[in-house]
Amino acid sequence: xxxxxxxxxxxxxxxxxxxxxxxxxxxxxxxxxxxxxxxxxxxxxxxxxxxxxxxxxxxxxxxxxxxxxxxxxxxxxxxxxxxxxxxxxxxxxxxxxxxxxxxxxxxxxxxxxxxxxxxxxxxxxxxxxxxxxxxxxxxxxxxxxxxxxxxxxxxxxxx
Length: 159
Prior knowledge:
Layout: E1 4-11, E2 20-22, E3 24-28, E4 32-33, E5 55-59, H1 60-70, E6 83-86, E7 96-100, E8 103-110, H2 115-120, H3 125-128, E9 135-141, E10 143-146, E11 150-157
Parallel strand pairs: 5-6
Antiparallel strand pairs: 1-2, 1-6, 1-11, 3-4, 3-10, 5-9, 7-8, 7-11, 8-9
């Protein structure tokens, strides 16, 4: 697997609050990103059991494909994902541990696009991002995430 990188980082302090781009953020193991709604337990889906809302990622390439194939301009912050990546296939990280800079994550499940994503972006976004709407991940070992951090997958699938 080729090494990817983090192009942008976004957090929102409350449900529905605009996503704010930051140059770096603390990833808190077992909790989420400092300053983000899910780390504070205030995200729209915070009441659901499981670690799958700690950090979310989406590929820049998926947004470029939506522009190319569907003529849709989907802004990265409109997807409400925390990390915008380049050069890594997020779908292949489901069930795998991977490293983003100094932070260790485990891919939990795909973020299939929903009506909320389409409402926050543009008509057709749901169709354009089917099976490439991003990845939900658990933070196994915290640290600071920075724009430009490399993304490296482990060689083995997690349990």
